Amino acid sequence: MNPANTPASTAPTPIPGIALPLLSLAAFGSGISLRVTDPLLPLLAKEFSIALGDASLVVTVFSIAYGLSQLFFGPLGDRYGKYFVVACAAFACALTSMLCALANSFQHLLVARLMAGATAAAIIPLSMAWIGDVVPYERRQPVLARFLIGQILGLSTGVLIGGFAADAGQWRLPFIMVTIIFLLVGIGLILLNRQLPLYAKSTRKIEGAALAHMFAEFRQIAALPWARLVLGTVFLEGAFLYGAFAFIASHLHQVHGVSLSSAGALIMLFGFGGFAFAVGSAKLVHYFGESGLTRWGGIFLAASLLAIGLAPDWWWAIPGCFIAGLGFYMLHNTLQINATQMAPERRGAAVSAFASCFFLGQSVGVGIAGRLLARIGTTNIMLIGAIGVLAVALRFSYYLRKKSTI
């Protein structure tokens, strides 16, 4: 029995209140892992006597593994239980983070970061899919927003911890801290999994070879028109937004003479904007609806990128980064809620495909923007990102309105 599709009169066994906060803590650790190496790059370059560009591979290999591995974990969660697989992934993340801390060469660190990206990939999509399983659709969006507070704070904390560690010359310390976080969270998750009612740890029996079944799952998802629209939208969202967002710090540094450390601190305001959405999500969802959240989220994002790119002074980035974070989560959270419902019978695979498309879109967007940067400059990169993300948001808002009238 799935309470997300069960009438209110049938009262299922309640889920322990700590279940969602534990998943949010796991997302917190995942967010730290994702961003913690960004400020450490100069220190790693010095430590291992390599160029700064080579040091950035610790970010690249994590990102590639994180994006591609999500495709694998969706069917795995459907087969063995999403909450259980997230718990196992937390323990695996503790191990791979410790391997990062113990690396005695840059090659060993790269391998460890590759493994860390692969293990962290399970946490966000499977947690979202589990929420989709146990929370009715009409109440799901605020719950997803509260869950994502962990990831939002983790992304900001990762930059902060990495910066402090870089100043102190202690690049191993953040990985030890992440190991401890994941170990404690893993223990909590595995203990709680035993207390969950049966509907909250449901599994699906899968016949035949696992790999063949995985490809069959994704083919069936791709055959759904609405799923194709959601996946294409989130890919383009990631490409246009992060193609511009990744160069905000460079833009502020080159155009306005802001130090890179100060620019990094300004970018943390993006996370605070996301936190503001999470706190007020219930009221915002009620007031705007899905179509309105998508439309205004795109407008806020575009206006913020335009303000940052065209502003005559650096301080425009203060409200710009905050409003960009608010707009992003208005748009992205609406896409997430649709991802949890675009293929309910194979929700784990569907949400994993969604997360993978988003992350791969980011990689494509940043890669293209990086190649164009020398020719057109950071200001034009911001303009392209603003126009692109606005077009993507308005298009999806149109289809949401059209869907609601059917």
Could you list some keywords that capture this structure?
single chain; 406 residues; mainly alpha; Growth Hormone, Chain: A
Plain-language structure description:
The chain has 406 residues and is mainly alpha-helical. It has 2 domains: 186 residues, Up-down Bundle (Growth Hormone, Chain: A), CATH 1.20.1250.20; 198 residues, MFS general substrate transporter like domains (Growth Hormone, Chain: A), CATH 1.20.1250.20. Helix content is 81%, strand content 0%. Helix 7 packs across helix 17 and helix 11 packs antiparallel against helix 16. The longest helix is centred in the last third of the chain and has 58 residues.
| Total DSSP helices | 17
Q: What's the Cα radius of gyration?
A: 21 Å
Number of discrete domains = 2
Class based on secondary structure composition and strand pairing: mainly alpha
Number of strands: 0
Shape: globular
**What is the H/E string?**
HHHHHHHHHHHHHHHHH
Largest sheet: none
What name does the CATH topology of the largest domain carry? Growth Hormone, Chain: A
Please state roughly what percent of the residues sit in beta strands, choosing from under 5%, 5-15%, 15-25%, 25-35%, 35-45% or over 45%. Answer: under 5%
Output mean pLDDT. 85
CATH architecture of the largest domain: Up-down Bundle
Q: Give the distance, in angstroms, between the N- and C-terminal Cα atoms.
A: 28 Å
Q: Which spans have pLDDT < 50 for at least 5 consecutive residues?
A: none
Helix content estimate: over 70%
- CATH level 4 superfamily of the largest domain: MFS general substrate transporter like domains
The first-level CATH class of the largest domain is given as: Mainly Alpha
